[in-house]
Write a structure and sequence with these properties.
Blueprint (H helix, E strand, L loop, with lengths): L3 E3 L3 H12 L4 E5 L27 H23 L6 E9 L8 H6 L10 E2 L14 E9 L2 H14 L3 E4 L7 H9 L10 E4 L10 E11 L6 E5 L5 E6 L6 E4 L3 E2 L8 H14 L1 H4 L12 E12 L4 E12 L7 E12 L28
Parallel strand pairs: 1-2, 1-7, 2-6, 3-9, 7-15
Antiparallel strand pairs: 3-5, 4-5, 8-11, 8-12, 8-13, 9-10, 10-11, 14-15
Helix pairs in contact: 1-4
Bound molecules: flavin-adenine dinucleotide.
Length: about 375
């Protein structure tokens, strides 16, 4: 009997590892698995880096807690498993026109930024030259990782713990129960005890929607993460990808935009802005084009957004099953389901949301499963 069935993004894989470490038998059923690239599979496209979020309401404060747990877990991962690609680096952030929420005092006292290691507000002399609009800069120690490499590492960790993987597209979450049972030869004891719904945007959840992100992967190096919040509301991010992955530069944030097409105008603006923020990027790299960049890929991913933020809650999943004694009839059954989706732009930052990593005690998360 399997205890749980999950899906295979960064949230599903991390949950599978946690449950397997606690001694549960876990089966992952997913349409996309590590190694795959699809616009609907968010995880391999992520930058992926740590950046604090503000903590002005209950939902944001909860995400802050999850971010702290994940930060601690990734610290241990970086030390013990260099092949995971997780590295801790200096991070800098610039704000063009900080609202009152980003004034010095609020940043330090309320906004959660000051909680992160090595946080300090930059002296005006440390701000990049030629950017008169920048009003405030901060620095802290953040982490970066190479998303495809990290997902493959999570996959290996899960397999090493005995997690089984089945590739299948579910028409409905309930179908997981039957796919699992069929994979066990329809044995009467092949029922699962619970389902974890880590499907990115959920199943027909009216509150879920995509946010299109156009990003650029270049071979040019940058040794720190740089984020610049422009007065027009856009953000430029420069994220080194460890283990020879180059640098990821972003990007756009386009809620409810389902387009697959690359915008050349966006690519040009993003690269022009990035070159001004990090001189190292365009000084001396080989194979550059006229803009100074060696572009490996321009791509689009969809962040799994949800009104109200991450859905992390337990419910009952009710479904209809064929009666064992009389196959002409159906019977109602139910099992617990833990919804775990809608991570938006923060999936990696909160990926150890069920706890249970190498830093935790064995019983953490038991009440959720
Ligand atoms: C361009 C970009 C940059 C980003 N940068 C960052 C960053 O720097 N830091 C950060 O923390 N986050 C970042 N994110 C966000 C992050 O990538 C997501 O929050 C995270 O990947 C979500 O993980 P997930 O496991 O919930 O979903 P996904 O990775 O989408 O995984 C969902 C899983 O469910 C499966 N699935 C879904 N529907 C079905 C179905 N019907 N049947 C079977 N299987 C199904 C999929 O196949 C997949 O296995 C970025 C995202 C993008 C697009």
């Amino acid at each position: 009997m399997s205890d749980a069935t999950i899906l295979a993004g960064v949230l599903g894989l991390s949950s599978a590892i946690q449950l397997a470490r606690e001694g549960h038998t876990v089966t992952v059923i997913a349409r996309d698995l590590p190694g795959d690239f699809d616009i609907e599979y968010a995880s391999p496209w992520a930058g992926s880096h740590f950046r604090p979020i503000s903590a002005n309401n209950a939902s944001e404060r909860f995400e802050q807690e999850l971010m702290h747990e994940t930060y601690d877990e990734l610290k241990v991962t970086a030390e013990r498993h260099p092949d995971s690609s997780v590295r801790f680096v200096r991070a800098v952030e610039y704000f063009d026109s900080p609202s009152p929420a980003y004034s010095d005092e609020t940043l330090v006292k309320q906004n959660g930024y000051a909680d992160w290691p090595d946080f300090r507000i930059l002296d005006p002399s440390e701000l990049p030259a030629g950017h008169d609009a920048i009003q405030l800069g901060v620095t802290y120690t953040g982490w970066v990782l190479n998303s495809p490499v990290y997902l493959a590492w999570l996959h290996r960790q899960a397999q090493g713990l005995g997690v089984r993987f089945i590739r299948a597209r579910l028409a409905a979450l309930e179908e997981a129960v039957f796919i699992h049972r069929e994979s066990e030869g329809n044995h009467p004891r092949a029922n699962i005890r619970a389902v974890i719904n880590a499907s990115g945007r959920g199943f027909q959840d009216p509150d879920s929607f995509p946010s299109r992100g156009q990003f650029i992967l270049v071979s040019n190096p940058c040794s720190e993460t740089i984020s610049h919040h422009w007065a027009d509301g856009s953000t430029t991010v420069i994220i080194p990808r460890p283990l020879g992955g180059g640098t990821v530069i972003g990007g756009t944030k386009e809620p409810n935009n389902w387009s697959h097409s690359i915008s050349n105008a966006a690519t040009e603006t993003i690269l022009t802005r990035a070159a001004k923020l990090c001189e190292q990027l365009v000084s001396g790299a080989s194979n550059q084009d006229a803009s100074g960049f060696d572009i490996k890929q321009v791509y689009i991913g969809r962040r799994p957004m949800r009104k109200g933020g991450l859905r992390l809650e337990e419910q009952t999943l009710e479904f209809q099953d064929t009666a064992e004694e009389d196959g002409l009839k159906t019977v109602s059954r139910s099992i617990p389901v833990v919804h775990c989706y809608g991570a938006g732009a923060s999936g990696f930052k909160i990926s150890w949301e069920l706890g249970g990593g190498e830093t935790s005690g064995a019983s953490r998360g038991d009440d959720i499963v």
